[in-house]
Design brief:
The structure holds 2 protein chains of 2 kinds.
Chain A: E1 2-6, H1 7-18, E2 22-25, H2 34-43, E3 50-53, H3 57-69, E4 74-78, H4 80-95, E5 101-106, H5 120-123, E6 131-134, H6 138-153, E7 161-166, E8 174-178, H7 182-188, H8 215-244, E9 252-255, E10 262-266, H9 270-283, E11 288-293, E12 295-297, H10 301-308, E13 313-318, H11 328-335, E14 346-351, H12 361-370, E15 379-380
Parallel strand pairs in A: 2-3, 2-4, 4-5, 5-7, 6-7, 10-11, 10-13, 13-14, 14-15
Antiparallel strand pairs in A: 1-8, 6-12, 9-11
Helix pairs in contact in A: 1-2, 1-6, 3-4
Chain B: E1 3-10, H1 15-28, E2 32-38, E3 47-55, E4 70-73, H2 78-81, E5 93-97, E6 112-116, H3 118-126, H4 132-143, H5 148-158, H6 161-183
Parallel strand pairs in B: 1-4, 4-5, 5-6
Antiparallel strand pairs in B: 1-3, 2-3
Helix pairs in contact in B: 1-5, 3-4, 3-6, 4-6, 5-6
Classes of the chains: A alpha/beta, B alpha/beta.
Chain lengths: 393, 185
């Protein structure tokens, strides 16, 4: 049904439809109201779930680690410092091969304190073994939560998924959404049947000591499974499309790339702004396009190579940084071309929208102007030079 | 055609509710609104903005609004510290919450300003100094963007009981007030 819904509330609604048996969250900043709404659903009897209110994100992640290990579908959400406080447990959840969905309401990192949107929080956990999806709008956000549970619980995958949605822009944005019908959700997402679970009658250990004879293979296995995700996602999204009528490729989206001379690569809600600029410039005969990366982990290097190999000029937008080195998305896009026969003449890297700095159509036009020149590395857009003057007493 | 609305308020004055009600009124017309806030210091009383961008197709543009078609100012004391009319289109319309008899602001020739005593209207209608619904009522009359009935539907969706009745009353009064001003413009 078509509804006018706020992002956080829409996420709460789709999670309710997915019927997690345990929800655990730290309720205050940097939390969003998605878990508050879920707490309402549980209190009102609309959702038969155990809501565990905890004193920290570390505990929230630990609670859902335990509940999934006990064989129960679970959910949590956080962002920014909260995600960092979870970090230790985040690696454990992936290492124990526990299927879980976590919503990351992407926000900047302290210090200085910022509540505003960028991708530094989730990108910092890119190496944790979690699958990561970045969404452009609320419909996609809702749909990818559902797809993520299916993917996560697939017995060939058994890995947690982080659905990354831009803080404020999407979490506090209100727009028209076609909420999936609950009966259809039930048919697409059957109840979770664990392969193994914590059970007093059949005792098992999860994540015990693995000495050097064993540890490396556990890491190799997760890495191999990420490759399987690249194969499974297109099948899963076409099944989703048959049930719900909306199609996603699941890994990347190409927008006017086929004949493009300049292509922007980006993730998240900024892709909407980029599409708007592309339509404007296309109307003036400029051959520009967008490659949206939806799956950042696993990184769809092959699909990106195929999409960009004949494009003369590529501009990669990063909404996070690897301070002291190349921006994360740009360095991986570049790596996809190393040692290959074909590659763009220019792959320039731009840093945009850090700490909530607004990304306007002019910011995108500036990127498209600069990509015409020689290759740029970590070029900051909309930087204020007047704030960079050093003054000492 | 895309329309852009910028709301100026202080945190706690209901700017997000205003954006929601505006968006919902457009939604009821079958349009695709995108309503979103931008917080300043994220503290009660701090100046903040909320925005509504609306089109006949889903809105993709995610930036803040710099050249609004319409501006709603929930607290006229903000005008002293900010240029609330910054970027307002040459034929733009502003709806300002202002005491009756207060000084009328000067704007460009084709721009129109509706000064609405929204706080007084709200106090009379439901006893709280929250002029949002009165302002949106005035907005509907000033711009013809949607009907008063659509706004009333939106209020019914957002409020229950006494708050609903009071806000509907405030919306009507705001609508009527702006309609009178309109005939003199």
């Amino acid at each position: 049904m078509r509804e006018f819904l706020e992002g956080s509330l829409a996420v709460a609604r789709i999670i309710k439809a997915c019927k997690p048996g345990v929800i655990s969250a730290y309720p205050i900043t940097p939390q969003t109201h998605m878990v508050e709404e879920l707490a309402n659903f549980v209190a009102n009897g609309e959702l038969n779930s155990q809501f565990v209110n905890v004193e920290s994100e570390h505990s929230a992640a630990s609670v859902v680690l335990g509940s999934v290990a006990a064989g129960v579908r679970s959910y949590t959400a956080t962002s920014s410092q909260g995600l960092f406080y979870m970090a230790e447990v985040i690696f454990n959840i992936a290492g124990m091969r526990l299927p879980l969905v976590l919503t990351c309401a992407n926000r900047a990192i302290s210090a200085p304190i910022s509540i505003w949107n960028d991708h530094q929080d989730s990108i910092s956990l890119r190496d944790s073994g979690w699958i990561q999806f970045y969404t452009e709008n609320l419909q996609e956000t809702v749909d990818f939560h559902l797809i993520s549970y299916r993917l996560s619980e697939d017995k060939h995958i058994m890995l947690p998924v982080m659905v990354c949605m831009d803080g404020y822009t999407l979490t506090h944005g209100i727009e028209t959404i076609d909420m999936p019908d609950e009966a259809k959700v039930d048919s697409f997402l059957p109840p979770y049947k664990p392969l193994y679970k914590l059970d007093v009658d059949n005792p098992l250990s999860f994540g015990p000591l693995a000495d050097p004879d064993y540890y490396m293979e556990t890491r190799y296995a997760i890495h191999q499974t990420h490759k399987d995700v690249l194969e499974i996602m297109p099948k899963l999204t076409s099944e989703f499309s048959r049930v719900f009528g909306r199609h996603y490729n699941g890994l990347i989206e190409e927008y006017h790339t086929k004949d493009a001379e300049r292509v922007i690569v980006a993730m998240g809600s900024v892709c909407g702004t980029v599409k708007e600029v592309i339509d404007e410039l296309r109307a003036k005969g400029k051959k520009v396009g967008l490659l949206k990366i939806i799956a950042y982990r696993p990184f769809p290097a092959e699909a990106i190579y195929e999409a960009l190999k004949n494009i003369p000029k590529v501009a990669v937008l990063d909404r996070s940084l690897s301070l002291g080195s190349y921006a994360p998305v740009a360095s991986e896009v570049k790596a996809a071309f190393f040692g290959k026969k074909k590659r763009p003449e220019v792959i320039s890297s731009f840093v945009v929208g850090i700490g909530g700095r607004d990304i306007t159509k002019d910011s995108i036009k500036e990127v498209l102007r600069l990509v015409n020149g020689r290759e740029k590395s970590n070029e900051f857009i909309d930087l204020k030079p007047e704030l960079l003057k050093e003054e000492y007493e | 055609m895309m329309r852009e609305i910028r709301i100026h308020a202080r945190a706690g004055q209901g700017a997000i509710t205003t954006a929601y009600l505006l968006g919902y009124s457009y939604f009821l017309k079958g349009m695709y609104p995108y309503a979103f806030p931008h917080f300043g210091a994220a503290r009660m009383g701090a100046p903040m903005n909320a925005f509504v961008r609306v089109d006949s197709k889903p809105v993709r543009l995610r930036s803040q609004i710099y050249q609004p078609d319409y501006v709603i100012i929930a607290d006229s004391t903000l005008i002293r510290g900010f240029n609330c009319f910054s970027g307002l289109k040459d034929n733009g319309i502003a709806v300002v919450n202002q005491r009756e008899g207060a000084e009328i602001l000067k704007v460009k020739a084709r721009q129109k300003i509706y000064a609405v005593p929204a706080t007084e209207i709200a106090m009379k209608a439901f006893g709280k100094p929250l002029g949002n619904t009165a302002l949106i009522g005035a907005y509907a009359a000033a711009t013809d963007e949607f009907a008063l009935e659509e706004l009333i539907e939106a209020i019914k969706k957002r409020f229950l009981g006494k708050a609903q009745e009071g806000n509907i009353e405030a919306a009507r009064k705001g609508f009527e007030f702006a309609l009178k001003q309109k005939s003199s413009k």
